[in-house]
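Box 3.1 A note on notation
Throughout this textbook, protein chains are presented in two layers. The first layer is the amino acid sequence; the second is a token string describing backbone geometry. Keep the layers aligned when reading.
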Amino acid sequence: MSVGEGLTIRGASALGLPLPASGYARQAYGNVTPDFGPATWLRVAPDGAVTVFAGKVEYGQGIRWGLAMAAAEELGLSPGAVCVVLGDTGRVPWDIGTFGSQSTRHTGVQVRRAAAAAREALLDLAAARLDLPPDQLICHGGHVASQADQSRGLTFAELLAGQEVVREIAAETPLKAASEFSVMGTRTRRVDAVERVTGQAVYAQDVIRPGMLYARVLRPPAYGAQMVSLDDSLARRMPGVVGVVNEGDLIAVLAETDQQADAAHELLASEWTERAGNISQWELPGVLAEAAHNPVTTQEAGDVEAALARARHRLEATYYIPYVPAAPMEPRAAVAEWDGSSLTVWAGTQRPFGIRGELAQFFGMDEAQVRVVAPEIGGGFGSKSLYRPAIEAARLARAAGRPVRVAYTRGEEMAWSTFRPAALITIRSGFDGDGRITAWDYQAVHTTTDRPMIGQRGSETPYAVADARVVVASGVAPLRPGSYRSLGCAVNHFAREVHIDEIAAALGIDPVALRLRNLPDARYRRVLEVAAEAFGWRTAAAPSGKGVGVAIGLDVGSYAAECVAIDVQGKEIAVGRVSSAIDCGLVFNPEGVRAQMEGAIIIGLGPALFEAAEFENGRLLNGSFARYRVPRINQTPAISVALVGSEANPSTGAGEPGIVPIAPAIANALFDRTSKRVRELPLQRQL
């Protein structure tokens, strides 16, 4: 970005690459080639307006709100006075993508540094004009004024008039101490709330370009099917149809309206051969048990077999978690427009720079010729990291010589997106009569053939066990695995936290007490104790008949615990209330953290109770909301969220930890209520 009059704050790009040495980022998200060059993070315009630039995207998690608060804090502004530009590769710093609850942890800190650097620059400018040292000045409400007499000051606009100032973000730039906060850590109004509730927010489906055509892509009838023949003669003659593009692996009708494209698509006569040996849903657990490969040991200590042999008590159980589609409210959409040799794509992706790289590679272009703009996104949950319609729209726009929009139907979104991987997990444990765990053998197989590291997340046990072994292997993947809120972490925690409850029940020990007996980490203990106290936990061994359950979790550096109360009516489980606690270190935005926890708990109700992909012979059977059940508002429990982190610890993620404990907590409550132990999700299908 070029600079001009005003104040520009620049700093390094490529922040927060997740585990680059392990190769996890490349396996999970494809192109991760970073741009380490300097980039503009903040601008104070000549009129005093403050704009923050960040490569993250907004898909409901409130990152625009949080970044506005971070900048506002350091500059003495209200969050509403800060404009935040996100997800536009032509304007913002390079970013690997918005996933893994990294936004506050890395980008939020950099925005604070940028705003602090801007504050220091403004104080320096004002010191000369006001004949006062910088340490006697304060930034407040768009002014720099004397601390002793705030009527003596200058506006940002007055300080910057006719000036061009560029500052670099220094690592030693002083940030405000938590004791000085007036914005961060307080309750504020979401900066984009009005646009979202009034329909002013623009999503990829809303982007309309002059002369734009609407595409409907022909999809295979089953996974792995290959086309044998195509007759598009009737489709070409339909009203409004501009043409049918046939580029081998991409066949699409292009028309002047959505309705005309849909009508012509129905007249495409195609024949296909389907892949032999497609696995159906009921076959998957057996296949995973028989065909694990590429095992990776994520935790190992002592001699597990010897410890199991000498254990006073032993327990072995197997847990199964099925595939789950992300099912976001907004189906994918992309609009592509060529201008000579330059390409612009509007796409609701979580990885604008990654998609830019993929587009450049596909068309043999320099990345500087490609711009990707991520408008507002109606939910992603990790699944919109991979974004097929971006390349489809660009290919079709090049073929047509006009802008083209590709928009998924609900069925396409469900079938051709990615799925939270299924898993089969077997645990063998040994323990003494007091509930001390003495042996732990954890063997997991996740359906992550092409991305094996997804299943390793959250597999290690947090409990103090001298002799422990955790092995995670890959299994066949009949559906495409991909990101989902907390990836494999929530899946691994389900098996472990249910097994811990089974140990407690076998010994007649209260499940909260047993966890505390084996948890060495003070932060883990704290969230568990706070959640239990808020819930009003009454010490008792399960099954008590009350229908209460508990579980803990750790993801993206944040600790969480949840206690739940349920009722069971026939084959329906009603979750009445959830008491949760989270430790995510220094909290930028308390309301944002609470909203993230509430949202994660609610989305977690679905896979816990009734959500699962149904598929047979390569076909998804429940690819519509008429057949795929998601949590409704009348199933939302009363939720309390306690924030127990210390400002001494750095900020960590809040978007994913809430989903980690909810399924095992409900499963444990189901046992407490009914005496029936269910080791497979979704729980209601097992009643």
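Residues 438 and 501 are 16 Å apart (CA to CA). The chain has three domains: 6-198, 206-274+332-407, 281-324+418-686.
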